[in-house]
Amino acid sequence: MAATKQPADKSHFILPDLGEGVHEAELISWKVKPGDHVKEHQTMAEMETDKALVEVPSPWTGVIDELRGSEGEIIIVGSILVTYKVDGASTPAAAPAAKPSAEASSDADASAEGEDQGTVVGTMSGTLEVSSRFSRNPEHDTESNGSAANGKAMATPAVRRVARELGLAIDRVPGTGRGGRVTASDVHAHASLGRDGAPAANANTDATDAAVITAESLSARPRDLPPISTDGIKERIPFRGVRRKIAQALDRSIKTAVHFTVVDEVDVTELEVKRREYAKVLGTRLSLLPFIMTAVCQSLKKHPALNANVDDAREEILIKDVVNLGCAVDTEHGLMVPVIGGADRLSLVELGNAVKSVAEGCKNRTIPREQLVGGTFTISNVGSYGGRFATPIINYPEVGILAAGRSFEKVMAKNGMIFAGTALPLSLSCDHRVVDGAEGARFLNTVKTLLENPSSLLV
User: Fold this and answer.
1) Count of C-beta atoms within a 10 Å radius of residue 269
2) Nearest residue to 369 via CA among 215, 243, 245
3) What is the pLDDT of residues 139-152, one digit of tens each?
């Protein structure tokens, strides 16, 4: 079944690239419905990638004809998201052309195509900026079959990825898009043909449906799992949104990193006195977390093996010279781990303000995706909710995570003297492939020593 060209007055808007390394997104909610008249830049849908909520705007003014996908579905980048009729003419009205740049002119794959008319050109405060690009570039002139002068097919990176996943040579796929470019539908249609050009058994299936993975298909039960009783079920809660991302991340971490955990108690009696003194001087309350973060940053400088990422694809350990500290935040949507970049260069007060800022961004879902990736070490403050010790799961591809428990009063002994002091439980999990048990214990002991001697910590 050969792909057919859509009527000129009917436009397809495909899900654009939402950020580096993002191949799919979960459809959280539609903000429009079929028959609605939308304006350019009006929000059409909310989508979620890597726990970041993103608004997808319309690149044109027009009438919604069809919405592809339901809430909770996983949409693959490059698949059709919305079909609608564009106002004003038989062809979509192009947004003002962006000023040419050296990077843009050298990237032939970023050329627009008939079904790839919406292209991300930047992100701002969780909202995608989408631009329609139709201006013809003589340097990227194509032949009638959609090939450039060097014989290579003209297609966007998203379409090329679809072809790779289907095992097709994209240069052999006839293009029906604008200027003969190869579209996602072209690739799927070509894949549905047999070697002799006869339609395959699934040729009648809508090609774009192959790019949509439903929540139902994700939850299909493998045959080796035992049956679950349906007796007494009060509520069924599907894995969606942040909860699904958490499940995927934890599953990947447990299956990849080799966890081991070291625990200890820290005497923070003197630190509590210093903390209250600081609060009076600064005129604001300081929690223990910024002090713990400072101790961790200093300790990572002495034990660099824990300030690292693992690149399993290349089988490399990447030791970092900057501390990008992840800070686990509990929200009503689920656990999120924003990253405070360059934490080792921040003061106590700056760390305290940074924690408040990222926590607020996570809770109101305004934090940009860029602040949810790139961490080198993570701290989880389980003590905020009453826990003491924990066995924290590593935020892969990092190699270490420290859980701080709830501080509590207890009877202690020091230099032969018994006194009532304050203890802080700490639990450290490391990737045993990178960090030996002894090194993990030494790192935790360095953190402990700094916290028990706040004068050296605050130098």
Assistant:
1) 18
2) 245
3) 334 444 444 445 67
Rounded Cα distance between 231 and 91, Å, is 56
Structure tokens at 131: 């631009």
Q: With cut-offs at 50, 70 and 90, classify the pLDDT of residue 366.
A: confident
Calculate the CA dihedral of residues 394, 396, 397, 402 and round it to 10 degrees.
Answer: -20
For the question of residue 432 being annotated catalytic, the response is: yes
pLDDT in tens, 384-441: 888 889 999 999 999 999 999 999 999 999 889 999 999 999 999 999 999 999 999 9
Amino acid 113 reads: E
Residue 240 to residue 457: CA distance in whole angstroms: 42
Give alpha helix (H) positions in 332-421: 348-363
**Residue 214 φ/ψ, nearest 5 degrees:** -85, 160
**Those residues with Cβ within 8 angstroms of residue 384's Cβ, 6 or more apart along the chain or in another chain:** 330, 406
**Closest by alpha carbon to 40, among 93, 115, 97?**
93
User: Which tokens sit at 232?
Assistant: 């007494």
DSSP state of 398: B
**Three-state DSSP class for residue 266:** strand
pLDDT band at 178 (very low <50, low <70, confident <90, very high): low
Round to the nearest angstrom and report the end-to-end CA distance of the chain.
Answer: 72
Residues 140, 259, 333, 432: which is the catalytic one? Answer: 432
Supply φ then ψ for residue 425, to 5 degrees. Answer: -75, 135
CA atoms within 13 A on the CB side of 202: 11
CA distance 85 to 8: 9
Query: Which phi-psi region, left, alpha or beta, contains residue 170 (left: φ > 0; alpha: ψ -120 to 50)?
Result: alpha
Cβ atoms < 10 Å from Cβ of 92: 27
Structure-block tokens of residue 419: 């006194």
Please give the backbone phi and psi of residue 336, each rounded to the nearest 5 degrees, phi first: -130, 150
Q: Please give the single-letter amino acid code of residue 45.
A: A
Please state, as a whole number, how many other Cβ atoms lie within 10 Å of the Cβ of residue 219: 9
Dist. CA 102–CA 191, nearest whole Å: 35
- Per-residue tokens: 203: 């040729």
Q: Return phi, psi of residue 38, to 5°.
A: -110, 150
Assigned token pair, 430: 């490391």
Query: Crossing angle of helices 269-282/437-452, nearest 10°?
Result: 50
